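Researcher: Please predict.
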Amino acid sequence: MTEGKIIGAFALTEPEAGSDAQALECSAVKDGDHFIVNGTKCFITSGKNGGVVILLARTKESGSDAITAFLATPDMPGFKMDKVEEKRDSAHRYCSALSALLRLHLMKP
């Protein structure tokens, strides 16, 4: 991304929760050295063209650390970009729906 070869996308908004991160329904459950991420997002900026997506999911019921950001790529099994729409008065396109059932490897710091 720093060289301008990959566009990043951001997936926070959900059909029921809107952009309220504390109300997210997309979940991420630890499974060994992986997380299973399951949920639906909408209105993803640069979603159609994003080579990497920052996807926010709930890892705990509550607390300041209940939401975690994950990196995913559209070519991962279980990642599906749905409807793409043009934004009015803009050259930007956004993906209006994304569904994911991903198995993401846990990276050690």
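Model: The domain at 7-95 is CATH 2.40.110.10 (Butyryl-CoA Dehydrogenase, subunit A; domain 2).
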